[in-house]
Write a structure and sequence with these properties.
The complex is a heterodimer of chains A (355) and B (804). Chain A is α+β, with helices and mostly antiparallel strands and 355 residues long. Helix content of chain A is 40%, strand content 18%. The longest helix of chain A has 40 residues. With 804 residues, chain B is α+β, with helices and mostly antiparallel strands. Chain B is built from 20 helices and 37 strands. A 7-stranded mixed sheet of chain B has the order 25-28-29-33-32-31-30, sandwiched between helices. In chain B, strands 5-4-3-6-9 form a 5-stranded antiparallel sheet, with no helix packed on it. In chain B, strands 12, 13, 19, 20 and 21 form a 5-stranded antiparallel sheet that branches. In chain B, helix 4 packs antiparallel against helix 11 and helix 13 packs across helix 18. The chains are: A alpha+beta (355), B alpha+beta (804). At the A-B interface, helix 5, strand 1, strand 2, strand 4 and strand 5 of A face helix 7, helix 10, helix 12, helix 13 and strand 25 of B.
């Protein structure tokens, strides 16, 4: 008996080791370990053996069965692994085919993307974002911004009117007084929005976008304006940028300045590595980006003191700065867009170019 | 304004090159827009010559062969085509190698077979003047061979300045010289009007009456006799030409020169052509017609001012003179008028007439009455020097005494408070003195007296601070940040929601467009709006650039359709775009009813074609799915119901509601396919669109979303297929299911819609996927069986039958 078990075991072990597929192994399992196979039969027939043989035979048969079972499992796992490898090898795709179904790609308009970028910079500097009406009263658009009653900007050649007393706002500045009417100092706001002037050519469109800035507290200086705009310039055009303030004139700021940023294309040198004149700044080394200044004291006197903004804006007690920048201009500089009209044509070949 | 640099240097000559001057002027507020080079780039090769002989060219009638002494041993042979060339003339010559102002380099040439070693020059070839066809004849005393640049202004830099509207005093060369003086510290020469050959007092032989002093603060006039009209000398012509003025004759050139130097326009009348030797300044009559120098007839109104003699109007005051009393070649007596006009009135007149002149451009910026005599003094001196004239005694001078200088206190502490940097009182005094302000020290700072030419611009302490700041140098300002007390930059709920809405559409493949706020009135017809439709309550622009931009858009549809058409035409049939922008309606009061709308338009395929399946095509449901993605993201309770808009397909249009299950349901917009006639008007095929009012959405969306617990037990899912009459809206089915199912119903979705023979005429089958869940335990089919029965019963009430 024991010899037969040894023989069976040897035979089975050789067959399992040679088994070359999961199916073949299953066959071997049935042949050696199945219900009708010899080894299990022996185990079942132990009772018919003389008692003195039962122990040794049973032990050997059990050991053989367990060893074969383990060997089959091990061999099966080995085969399954290589068969899976084989299947996966055969399951190849052309990875260079396009993804599918094709995903449509949308994009923000470059003016929106730019406006958001600028808003975010000023949000980071502690400003909140306000908006206001585009059809605006003459009072807020001109009077409260210290424009004399005969200021040329009021002319119908320079401003769109919708009635005797209201206009399409010519700048975002009317929101300065509206913001101060609604909130007490200290006040830090930026006001993005659409504005209108009757001009139309490659460098003027009758509508365009500005971002107004206004900061009013008891001690905000022209130097603070410079610092704030330096942060802005570096955030938009790169950390190496510098700003310079040039004296200028606006009716509602005093002192008034125009603000230039050192040219990011030629690093402010005015010429390029090959010695050619920088096309972007036209050799100046500086790019004009916005107008600004300390809020003119007369503007504060147009802000009535109410419950909403108490203690109000006494020109002897508060001071601050304001700026107005053109979103189209910033985007033009940043992306090298040659013609303002491209913004409003909305050709997909233009829209698709930006992030 | 164009300022020839040598002219500027005559009054202030800092030891700086043109670039450094540019930098100083720009950084102190007189921005240099450009630097031009006028005349020749290099004076090399330009010399004085004397024509020794001028013989007829053998083969060309119009050419002469000249022997020209250029100061060398042998005369040069030069072929010249000018009709006026003759032996004995002293002329300007360009030799081979010389580069002309237009950039051409002269070479040895043969003209009709005769060699020519150079060119005899005309004024226009040197950009000195426009002096006709002929060559320029120079002073006979000049020695041949003298470099031309030594005797004629044939090369000069011209700086082009942007003068801000508050600085009309800088519209003259001397005003700019004062700025340069303040900006560099270089000495300033005495004013060119300091020494006036004329005299005050009554003037014989001419009379002036000002009938409208409110529009004419000052009117001055002088008489110059024994005038000889002739061309101006080259230096004067060269300066005028470089400054952008065309030389005419000595008298006219002098008026222009005096204007460019002082900023103040002048006008020269031929006194013998002034009928009655009397000028009257008066308001024009309504509809009065005047012929101006340019030959045009202009129709005036009573806000405009004319100057007339006894035969009627000769000029429109401050804007343009008339032909009748203009200076002529035979003029002997000149009446020199220098007047001050009200700036805004001149602005109005010139714009109303569409007539802008150098003079009107200056007057409208507001000149001071003192400037009249400045210009008189300069012009009087030059008329005596260049026209052989003598000034008659006296000056007509009508107008009140100009106001005394204002005195303004300037606190030292205030300078620091505004600028954020210290400027010493000594430095302030020095800066102000350079700008012609006088100041005295006080305990708090300075008391400053404002010069007449600055009285409009400088009226307050802060104006003085600006003067100090700009000359002291804004470069000196440190870059600091404000204290930002209480400044916590953040977007509002509505602003964040707007960004999220835009991003949601971008993320689903739509491109954002930015359209025009303006539109054409015809848009309202193209959208098929009946005459009484609310969307016709538009804001109308009173002075539009064109009819196509004469109203403010009441909807985003117009710009979306325009952009769609443009892109379909140029880039193919698939367009998926949206716009986020303001729309406008008229309302009572000065403001408009404005709201920020979000609109989307889809036509063609929603995605690019792919090798694995065809993309979805734009239609009502594609648009609704997009809108749903947007609204679900905001946790808005929303729904649609059939609606009707004239521009939408009547069977495929809906209104969009939020808070639709509450009593406070708000209509926020529309959704639908465009009416085929509307789509066709833009050349589009099937097109779907929606637009919503983002303000209303923001108001309806909770600012903060609260967490909803979902438990740990699995959901029980069941499907339900039911046939119903097609007249029963899907939303009603859903509502009934929700109402009967109770709280344990987590979701219900329609996953199949079928109509056909199997379900019978007039009916359709809806397949619903139900999902139940409780927080307490795992639900079983037995738990749900009663609920299911109730649902089936409720659906039976509206004709629903369970399908097998």
């Amino acid at each position: 008996m024991i010899d037969r078990i040894t023989e069976l075991r040897g035979e089975a072990e050789a067959a399992i080791a040679a088994g070359s597929s999961s199916d073949a192994l299953e066959e071997l399992r049935v042949r050696y370990l199945g219900r009708k196979a010899e080894l299990p039969q022996m185990l079942r027939g132990l009772a018919t053996l003389p008692p003195e043989q039962r122990g040794a035979v049973g032990k050997a048969a059990n050991a053989a069965r367990q060893a074969l079972d383990a060997q089959i499992h091990a061999r099966a796992a080995e085969l399954a692994g290589s068969e899976l490898d084989q299947r996966l090898q055969e399951d190849r795709v052309d990875v260079t085919l396009p993804g599918a179904p094709a995903q449509p790609l949308g994009r923000l308009h470059v003016l929106t993307a730019t406006r958001r970028e600028l808003e975010d910079i000023f949000l980071g500097l502690g400003f909140t974002v306000m908006e206001g009406p585009e059809v605006e009263t003459v009072h807020y658009n001109f009077d409260a911004l210290n424009h004399s009653s005969t200021h040329p900007a009021r002319a119908r050649t320079d401003t769109f009117y919708v009635s005797e007393e209201s206009v399409l706002r010519t700048h975002t500045s009317p929101m300065q007084v509206r913001a101060m009417e609604a909130h007490p100092p200290p006040l830090y706001v930026v006001i993005p929005g659409r504005v209108y002037r009757p001009d139309s050519d490659a460098t003027h469109t009758p509508q365009f976008h500005q971002i107004e800035g206004l900061a009013v507290d008891e001690d905000i200086t022209l130097a603070d304006l410079k610092g704030t705009l330096l942060e802005f310039a570096r955030a938009v055009f790169g950390g190496e940028r510098d700003v310079r303030l040039r004296p200028h004139f606006f009716p509602f700021t005093e002192p008034s300045v125009e603000v230039d940023v050192s040219c990011f294309h030629c690093a402010g040198k005015g010429f390029l590595a090959d010695g050619a004149r920088c096309y972007l700044c036209k050799g100046e080394g500086w790019l004009e980006v916005l107008g600004a200044g300390e809020v003119d004291p007369n503007v504060y006197s147009y802000v009535p003191t109410t419950e909403a903004n108490a203690p109000g804006y006494d020109p002897e007690k508060v001071q601050g700065f304001a700026w107005g920048l053109g979103v189209e201009r910033i985007a033009m500089l940043k992306h090298g867009i040659p013609d303002l009209r491209l913004y409003y044509e909305n050709d997909l070949r233009f829209l698709e170019q930006f992030r | 304004m164009r300022v020839p640099l040598p002219w500027l240097r005559e009054y202030c000559d800092p030891p700086l090159d043109v670039r450094a001057i540019e930098e100083r002027l720009t950084m102190t507020g007189t921005k240099v827009e450009a630097i031009h080079h006028h005349g020749v780039a290099s004076t090399d090769g330009f010399v004085v010559g004397r024509v020794l002989t001028a013989e007829q060219h053998p083969d060309a009638d119009r050419l002469k062969v000249c022997a020209v002494d250029l100061g060398e041993a042998e005369p040069a042979q030069i072929v010249c085509g000018a009709p006026n060339v003759a032996a004995g003339q002293t002329v300007a010559v360009a030799r081979p190698g010389a580069v002309m102002p237009d950039g051409t380099k002269l070479k040895q040439a043969k003209l009709r077979g005769v060699a020519s070693e150079g060119m005899i020059l005309s004024e226009s070839e040197l950009e000195i003047g426009s002096g006709g066809e002929g060559i320029m004849i120079l002073d006979a005393e000049l020695a041949p061979g003298t470099p031309l640049g030594d005797v004629l202004p044939i090369a000069m830099d011209v700086i082009e300045l942007e003068i801000t509207p508050n600085r009309p005093d800088c519209l003259g060369v001397y005003g700019v010289a004062r700025e340069l003086h303040a900006a560099t510290g270089a000495p300033l020469a005495p004013a060119p009007w300091a020494d006036d050959p004329g005299s005050a007092g009554p003037l014989a032989g001419a009379e002036v009456v000002v009938e409208c002093p409110e529009l004419c603060p000052r009117f001055t006039a002088r008489v110059l006799e024994d005038v000889t009209i002739a061309p101006s000398p080259p230096w004067l012509k060269a300066r005028l030409t470089a400054a952008g003025q065309r030389p005419i004759n000595n008298v006219v050139d002098i008026t222009n020169y005096a204007m460019l130097l002082s900023g103040q326009p002048l006008h020269a009348f031929d006194l013998d052509r002034v009928a009655g030797a009397r000028l009257t300044v008066r308001r024009a009559g309504e509809g009065e017609q005047v012929q101006t120098l340019d030959g045009q007839t202009r129709t005036l109104d009573s806000e405009m001012v004319v100057i007339e003699d006894s035969e009627g109007p000769t000029s429109i005051a401050g804007v343009m003179g008339g032909a009748r009393s203009e200076v002529q070649p035979d003029t002997k007596r000149v009446l020199l008028e220098v007047a001050s006009w009200k700036g805004p009135n001149i602005h109005r007149t010139s714009w109303a007439l569409g007539l802008r002149s150098e003079a009107s451009g200056r007057f409208e910026k507001g000149l001071q009455p003192e400037q009249c005599l400045h210009a008189q003094a300069i012009a009087t001196r030059l008329m005596e020097e260049l026209c052989g004239a003598s000034v008659a005694a006296g000056t007509i001078d009508i107008g009140p005494e100009p106001p005394a200088p204002a005195v303004i206190g300037l606190r030292e502490a205030r300078v620091r408070a505004i600028l954020g940097v210290d400027v010493s009182a000594e430095r302030q005094t020095e800066i102000l003195a350079a700008l012609d302000f006088s100041s005295i020290r006080t305990p708090e700072g300075l008391e400053v007296s404002v010069p007449p030419l600055r009285r409009e611009d400088v009226t307050r302490e802060v104006d003085l601070i600006e003067e100090v700041a700009r000359i002291d140098g804004l470069e000196r300002l440190p870059a600091t940040l404000p204290a930002r007390r209480g400044a916590a930059g953040k977007l509002t709920h509505a602003q964040r929601l707007r960004r999220a809405a835009e991003d949601a559409l971008v993320g689903r493949g739509l491109h954002e467009i930015v359209g025009w706020s303006f539109t054409e009135p015809a848009l309202l017809d193209r959208l098929r709006l009946p005459s009484d439709h609310a969307m016709r309550q538009v804001v109308v622009v009173e002075n539009p650039l064109s009819d196509g931009q004469s109203i403010m858009r009441p909807t985003l549809l117009g710009s979306l359709l325009d952009a769609a058409r443009q892109n379909v035409t140029r880039n193919g049939p698939d367009v998926a775009i949206f716009e986020s922008g303001t729309v406008y309606r008229r309302k009572d009061g000065p403001l408009a009813d404005e709201h920020h709308a979000l609109g989307a338009l889809l036509t063609g395929a929603l995605a690019p074609r792919s090798w694995r399946g065809e993309p979805v095509q734009a239609d009502f449901f594609a648009a609704k799915a997009l809108l749903g993605a947007l609204l679900e993201r905001f946790h808005l309770d929303w729904s649609v119901r059939p609606g009707s808009w004239p521009f939408l397909h009547p069977g495929r249009s809906a209104e969009v509601l939020v808070n639709s299950r509450g009593a406070d349901a708000v209509r926020v917009g529309f959704l639908g396919e465009l009416h085929p006639l509307v789509a066709d008007s833009w050349g589009l095929e099937r097109t779907a669109a929606f637009a919503v009012d983002l303000g209303k959405l923001a108001a309806a969306a909770e600012p903060v979303v609260s967490f909803a617990p979902f438990g740990s037990f699995p959901a029980l899912r069941q499907d339900l297929a039911v046939t119903l009459p097609v007249s029963v809206p899907a939303a009603e089915v859903i509502d009934r299911v929700r109402a009967k199912a109770g709280k344990s119903l987590e979701r219900v979705e329609i996953f199949d819609v079928y109509s056909g023979a199997q379900v019978g005429e007039g009916r359709r089958s809806l397949a619903l996927a139900l999902s139940f869940r409780t927080l307490e335990r795992t639900l079983t089919d037995e738990d749900i069986a009663p609920v299911r029965e109730k649902i089936v019963a409720a659906l039976a009430e509206i004709g629903g039958e369970l399908r097998g």
